[in-house]
Amino acid sequence: MKDQQETAKITANQLTAMLIIVVATNAFLTYPQYVSQSAYEAAWMEPIISGVMTLVLFFLVEWVLRKFYPQLDIVEVSKEIFGRVGAALIAIVFAAYFLCTTAVVVREFTENVISTVLPSTPILLVGAVFMAAVGYIAYAGLEGICRTAYIFLPVLLIGLVGVCVATMNWWHMSFLLPIWGTGVNHVLMGSCRYSAVFSNVLLLTIIYKHAHNPRQMRQIGTVSITVSTLLLTFLIVTYHMVFPAVESEQVSFALYRLARLIYLGPFFQRMESVFIFLWVTSATVKMAVTLWCSAYLLGKAFGWPTYRPAIPILSLLSWSIAMWADNWVQVVNVDGRYLMSWGWLIVFALPIAVLFIGTLARGLRGPHDGPGDRRRRRRRVRHA
Amino acid sequence: MQSRFTSLLKRLVTVDDTVLDQQFTLIDDESDTSYEADGNKHTPEVIDFDTDENKTETRRPVSMREFIRKGTDEYNEAVRKSHVGQDDALPVSIDEMKQRLERFFHLPQNKDVVVREFSVGVHTNQPWRGLAVFIDGMADKTVINRDILERLMLFTEFIHDEPRRNMEYIAENLLTSNQTVTLEKWSQVVQTVLSGSTAVLLDGCNGALSVETKGWEHRSVGTPQTESVVRGAHDSFTESFRANTGLVRARFRSEHLVTEMFSVGNLATTDVAVMYVHGMTNPKLVREVRRRIEAVDVDYISSAGMLEQFIEDQPSRLIPQVLSTERPDRVAASLAEGYVAIFVGNNPYVLIAPVVLYSMVHTSEDANLRFQAGTFIRCLRWVALFVALLLPSLYVAVTNYHPEMLPTDLMLAIAGSREQVPFPVIVEILLMEFAIELIREAGIRIPSVIGPTIGIVGALIIGQAAVQAGIVSPLLVIVVATTALAGFAIPNYELSMAIRITRFIFLLAGAVLGFYGIAILGCVYVVRLSMQKSFGVPILAPIAPSKGSSKDVLLRGPVYTMNRRPVFLNPLRSWRQQPITRPWSSDTGRRKGSGENGSDKS
């Protein structure tokens, strides 16, 4: 059976849209709360620093992939370097990270929905519906996800910018002072610690071979990281101009808090329900990406002819993990303490380490002597 | 009298089921030979699919491959048997020809197949017998009388010795019909007669002549019924196959316009024509259309709607994957853009393939209006599409889950109006939607003589009476009526049907989970749409996947800037007009970037 994803070739603007949504969706999850806790008034600087750092690493990884591993993803690169078993282990680590991310976001998202718009609905129903939709979208494959992301990107842009601009009458510039918040060192530490939201580097190593024109990858990375950084920064700046820093660190759903303040005359008030479309569409796309990545990596690692049968299983698994925690506080603790704080190890460090070990090994043993090279050459011919 | 009374009494007290035997039944119909005329010994070959050799029942386990192979063999054998005699060469003797005609056309029971016997020539010692075969009602009798029978019977004196040469001589010199073809096989003769032409068979000739005499009754070209426009052409396709192709060719006068003909159907054939512009339309698209039509293996195709279901990519999807139109100007414009048109015999709708979602919201009128007006009405239709799809579900979601969104006064007004209504909102809205759907359906089916009745009944159902009866609230009437109007504003009937059905799914989602449910379903629906294809073209192209195109997708650009053909069709010639189309104008003659590729991409 032919790998269903093998032929998927995604255009640059669709990949850009997908990467923007994956990162910018953190605006209405717990990311604003974490950076507020970390830097107080200077919280808006953290996404900028994380974004710049991500951009530099993205260029670096893209250069290595383009120069040494064209048409290969991270699992195939790992196979060349560490063999099948090593590649499988690395893929399992990545897949587990994506699965846990999916689970945490599902729980955060459903808790947000329960606490804001559907207080009487059982969380199991809300989560199950969400997970089913995410599974369906992931089942459609990367093409379907990216096309959907491209269609919904205007909704995200208009929604995020709209909610910020519509609260203009509540802005207090003085709330952004002192300018360095908790201090430069805290800002830098927080930027590194919470940089895992910028998962562009890891995603790059997975989707690289599916780009319609890999030469545009640098442009895709630049635009997507810049736009998502600006969106996150804009939201956090607005959030901190509206609420004092001490208060902002207490709230886990910044966007909803802002949306509730919108008052554009007696007819346009209490507009927060309208933003449900924004949360749902973005979160669905983000979750579909992580779920798809998880299934795709496992499929590649174990040589499955297709990843699709894994999607329902992984959906169920991530939903089960999501419902594991007894309450919302536990989820936030797990997310903040492990996934957010140490996620950079998997999002940045591990793929870069794999690529650089591979590059060093190639340098040591010469350019054309490994079995992986032969495999790669065969693949190139087939691709041509 | 007494016996009748006794009979009645007997029937009252006895169980007599003989009355059941008197009922009409189709069982064991093979034994009934009453339809056969006396003396007719020629029965058509009967293929018994229940004989041992044709049974597909397996008694022992066989592999799937073997099972499929056996089934294919049996099918091919059955088809071969059903064509026994069709591929034979024509007999030479006129008596044998007549005998075979009687057997194939079930004569003499079949009264509308006419076999006219005649003698060729007026002054001959040895009469040369001939047959003219045609179907009464399909062939033009004036042409037969004047151009065939009169010419052969009265004006023919020369008879050549060589029969074959006589046939050619007759075709070239005697018959004045505009289309005359020499036939070699029996199946060609049958097909000729069934298509309305007249077959001329002469004694001693191993060939026949097919003379074009098609002339059945059909509706004349009229105004479009479902795609009316204010500004634009007012003619539409009719039930005549050739008239339809002619209507398009009369508009699109190009020697590169190609019309390929196919016959679809095993039991009864239907003419299907594929029209495209050679050298411009993507050959892969033409090949795919041709392949799918040729692969259709059915007994009978009655309409374009049926063929559409046989050739579309994913029949389970609600959104149509082929555009159906009754407007020749729309077909001509589509051909010019690189689409392929499919004509189905005697059907007033023509299929255009592939189709994208945006085409189904366009009308022929858009191009005839100036771009500002065209854009305005197109925006209106997009809004109508979303209103028709989402308004009832949003109403249910707002009233049930998000009432805080409404201004206080409006919320109190709604609550006050709903005070008398005993049903929940979802029941209320389903009742009204059901009523509207009934009115729509009845309005189509009702005879025009009693047409005004539907208006009165409809007004009663969804009007003041329903509100006063306390069944629905006044605001709901507005919601449902607006939804219905929006549904009518969607120009494509198939798309409108899809929206009608999908609306109920969204209604359910809104009723169960409010905005959250609608948003989730919206995501799923968009993904489903984004993966849907029409003849290899994603139905959301050129937006998702995004491809360059003229400004004629969501909005409409000025005609003098729409220079490129749709890129998603991959036409062989991508430019349909010069980059500068108004060189005399200082405003538009030198448009910014007009000389560069992709200048008109939206």
Structure description:
The complex is a heterodimer of chains A (384) and B (602). In chain A, 72% of the residues lie in helices and 0% in strands. Chain A is an all-alpha fold and 384 residues long. Chain B is α+β, with helices and mostly antiparallel strands. In chain B, helix 13 runs antiparallel to helix 18, helix 13 (371-400) crosses helix 19 and helix 15 runs antiparallel to helix 16 (451-462). Chain B is globular, with a radius of gyration of 32 Å. In chain B, 34% of the residues are buried. Chain A binds chain B through residues 10-11, 13-14, 113, 117-118, 121, 125-126, 129-130, 133, 136-137, 140-141, 143-145, 147-148, 150-152, 266-267, 269-271, 273-274, 276-277, 279-281, 284-285, and chain B through 398, 401-402, 404-405, 407, 513-524, 526-528, 530-531, 538, 540, 543-546.
Provide a short characterization of the protein structure.
Chain A: Belongs to the amino acid-polyamine-organocation (APC) superfamily. Spore germination protein (SGP) (TC 2.A.3.9) family. By secondary structure, chain A is mainly α.
Topology:
The complex is a heterodimer of chains A (about 375) and B (about 600).
Chain A: H1 12-24, H2 31-39, H3 45-68, H4 74-116, H5 123-139, H6 141-166, H7 184-193, H8 200-207, H9 217-242, H10 245-248, H11 254-260, H12 276-301, H13 310-322, H14 328-365, H15 371-383
Helix pairs in contact in A: 1-6, 1-9, 1-12, 2-7, 3-7, 3-8, 3-9, 3-14, 4-5, 4-12, 4-13, 4-14, 5-12, 5-13, 6-9, 6-12, 8-14, 12-13
Chain B: H1 2-13, H2 18-21, H3 64-82, H4 94-104, E1 113-120, E2 128-135, H5 141-153, H6 163-174, E3 180-183, H7 186-194, E4 198-202, E5 208-211, H8 241-251, E6 257-264, E7 270-277, H9 283-295, H10 304-311, E8 323-325, H11 328-337, E9 340-344, E10 350-353, H12 364-368, H13 371-400, H14 408-417, H15 425-445, H16 451-462, H17 464-468, H18 474-489, H19 493-530, E11 533-534, E12 537-538
Antiparallel strand pairs in B: 1-2, 2-4, 3-5, 4-5, 6-7, 7-9, 8-10, 9-10, 11-12
